[in-house]
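ARCHIVE RECORD
Type: protein–small molecule complex
Small molecule: fe (ii) ion
Source of inputs: curated submission
Record status: active
Notes field left blank by submitter.
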Amino acid sequence: MKTSVFGAVHLGYLVIETQRFSDWARFGTDAIGMHRDDLGSGVMRFRLDDQECRFLLRRGPAEDVVATGWHIDDHASFEQIEARIRAHGVPVVRGSAEEAELRGVERLLRFPGPKGITQEIYTTPLKSAEPLLMVSSGWVTGDAGLGHVAITSTKPERLRGYFDTVFDARLTDFIDETISGVKLKVRFLRVNERHHSIAVAAVRGLPIDPVRTRVQHLNIQADSLDDLARSYQRVHELGFDMALSVGQHTNDKELSYYARTPSGFEWEVGWNPIVVDESTWEPATHQGISIWGHTPVGQTIIDKLDQFRLGARSLTRPEKTVPALSGAPGPGRRR
Ligand SMILES: [Fe+2]
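STRUCTURE (tokenized, with ligand):
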């Protein structure tokens, strides 16, 4: 019987590979409202709080999130996770001193993850002595971690299995949704008090993936409704594309909007999601992603045709998985 690491795992940072540095600088600093540090030689970082790095942008062709970094509370849990991965025969690579420094962390390890998103774990985030210089008043991180990532998948059970094996992720709930006649099922997984750190969206009954990027969207949580509204306004005024207008989600009740990043995936800014109480929580299935709002902005028939084209192409390109870590959840565990 393995000791659970649930609650000791927090989404800590994301690594983004892009060539569009000047657009990203404007998007992150002037529109979303984060603190930016230019490190030179093709490296830019954004901060949300006292941690040195929440987003690491490095030059490269992917235009995508290429790695997710998870903060592990204590060395025992860290070693437990490392041992699990090794026990399944999956390679674990120690990050170099330079890689750890870029991410502002200590004790960095990396291993393969679903859809080719490298998974990284670390024990200690480095704190910056520099005060935050940003137009937002603040962001909610703490025990709930950075926010969440949403991934589309043709193999949702494998993703569920992977995050169960590695982090003891729990199923929070499901959403069934129909978009443009396509039925989707979304699984929401949590690793701490945050309603979800990972969302997995799958087209029901068809092995197609309608999204080019590995991550469909990521989410960060604004401190106040005022911050949410002002950043929404800035995204518009600075000419960045809005994907979905302000709305409220059915399951975590978060108020949010979705902007399109210079790399093409979406960036959700949210406010006031519910926090899960482990003593009473029961998974449920919600109908539709939103109670109100979240209306597509400026979507054309060309965009819809593009989605079908991408979906069709995904039929011929098998999704990357890590089979050794993606087995079904063990007995007694909720699916
Ligand atoms: Fe989200």
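CURATOR ANNOTATION: Residues 148, 150, 199, 217, 219, 268 surround fe (ii) ion (CB under 6 Å).
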